[in-house]
Amino acid sequence: MFVEEIREHLINDLIPFWKGMRDDTYGGFYGWLGYDLVLDEEAVKGCILNSRILWFFSNAYRLLGEEELLEYARHAFGFLKDHCLDQTYGGIYWSLAYTGQPEDTTKHTYNQAFAIYALSSYYDASGDMQALQIAQELSELIETRCKDGYGYLEAFSRDFQPEENDKLSENGVIAEKTMNTLLHVFEAYTELYRVSGDEKIASSLKFMLDVVADKVYNKEKGRQEVFFDKTWNSLIDLYSYGHDIETAWLVDRGLEILDDASYTEKLSPITKCLTKNIYDRAYIDHSLVNECENHVVDTTRVWWVQAEAVVGFLNGYQKSPEKTEYLKAAQDIWAYIREYLIDGRKGSEWYWAVDQDKRPLKKPIVEPWKCPYHNGRMCFEVIRRMQDASQAV
């Protein structure tokens, strides 16, 4: 029932919705659909949004094999290649005007990572060597322009001069390094290594795993720290529950692809601990609370946190099959999503979030951060994992 419902939701709801956001006049996909379901065809187009849509259609094609899905991915790739990619200085812009002209020319490491993630999947789906080449060039750019001796820096001007990291800083701090950017560079490099086998990328993955284990993970508190100064000193007392459960399964995925016994031995206890702690601390009322700052819990149920919790708990169950409570939690959170987070109005998708009384927040349905990446990936992961499990029986 669980996997069948999610497959139906992917095929009947998510894919048609995102097909409908395609812009055939200026390219790419529209950048804004308000809570009122009014489409703004002249809204800014976030490059993260376009990368995530490219990733979504590439993986939808890989899963379902329908040629039309690959054509939508090709449409997104053309926009990324011709508009999101800076032909002068290299790298991916932050955002574009609806016409495809640069709007915010900030170069952020996070943004480069999502382009790599998308291009690697698109290469796997299409065999287009140009996509792989761009992904490799972006990874080289990250390694040479966006990294110091301690790890990955964050924000830069168009020509890669360091800038203040206001885009990936929250909760009243400006961070020189973030757990979030590190996680998504790791995620992107995992996919790039999977399709390329490039040993330089493997070396970078190992570097990041060491940073996670030695700097980001707080063993005493059983959590990841979130915002840091240049040398990985934490700036704030914050539990980011969604990022912790997302990290648990993404690191496990990276370990599988990397296939290095010493790193698996080093990191697996951490991913198990993160999964258990999120189950014990944040899984409340059939869903995950958002975060806890200075002992104050934010009870908002955010769309992406719930989606990552489904995958994270399913992953935890598959890693430790005796933990049947994790499988039940994944199924329980999906039921919560189905009941409260999926917007049943025609022409909509998921709400951004609901409050503790399960009332939707009146935030956009689509905007530069609201995309088919988390909920689409939840669908892909559940279908693939449950399908693989049934075939193994």
From TrEMBL:
Q: Which InterPro entries match?
A: AGE/CE, Cellobiose_2_epim
E.C. code: 5.1.3.11
Respond yes or no to whether keyword Isomerase is given for this record: yes
Q: Which domain of life is it from?
A: Bacteria
What this protein catalyses is: D-cellobiose = beta-D-glucosyl-(1->4)-D-mannopyranose
- Fetch the Pfam families from UniProt: GlcNAc_2-epim (PF07221)
Using the UniProt record, name the top-level EC class of this enzyme in a single word. Answer: isomerase
Q: What keyword terms does UniProt attach to this protein? A: Isomerase
Q: Which family does it belong to?
A: Belongs to the cellobiose 2-epimerase family.
Q: What does this gene product do? A: Catalyzes the reversible epimerization of cellobiose to 4-O-beta-D-glucopyranosyl-D-mannose (Glc-Man).
* Name this polypeptide is given: Cellobiose 2-epimerase
Q: Give the source species.
A: Faecalicatena faecalis
